[in-house]
Specification:
The chain has 126 residues and is an alpha+beta fold. The chain is 32% helix and 18% strand. Strand 2 and strand 3 form a beta hairpin. The radius of gyration is 16 Å and the shape is globular. The two termini are 26 Å apart.
């Protein structure tokens, strides 16, 4: 198993962003293993990742395919593991980890990574 696994999830362009003409600056390359990020109109940087999740990826699909199951199994076997959400403000970190705010109601399909992971841990320990 790799020591570090980077998975990338890109959120959709928000309605208010679309209204002012914003467009996505991320392009997937090499079957989801490489990302091209437009930094300036004439400059693009490329980054490698273990797996890329496109804009419309559901919470369930992300949870099942991001590799958290392997991390939990390793943690339960005594290894140190870490899950980190990183990105700029409004990038979708809180939604991915926790789901939508309580004010929007709770729907099982929108539950975040933390709740799903805790259920998996309790199931494994049971």
């Amino acid at each position: 198993m790799e020591n570090i696994k980077a998975v990338v999830r890109v959120r959709q362009i928000l309605c208010m962003e679309r209204k002012v003409g914003d467009v996505s600056c991320v392009e997937v390359q090499e079957c989801g293993k490489k990302l091209a990020v437009k930094i300036l109109p004439t400059k693009t940087e490329t980054y490698r990742c273990s797996k890329f999740f496109p804009k419309l990826t559901s919470q369930q699909t992300f949870y099942e395919q991001c590799g958290v199951h392997d991390l939990i199994d390793r943690a339960l076997a005594g290894h140190s593991v870490n899950i980190l959400a990183f990105g700029e403000h409004n990038a979708g970190k809180t939604y991915t980890l926790l789901g939508p705010p309580k004010s929007l109601g709770s729907c099982e399909k929108h539950v975040g990574l933390v709740s799903r992971t805790l259920k998996h841990i309790y199931h494994k320990l049971d």
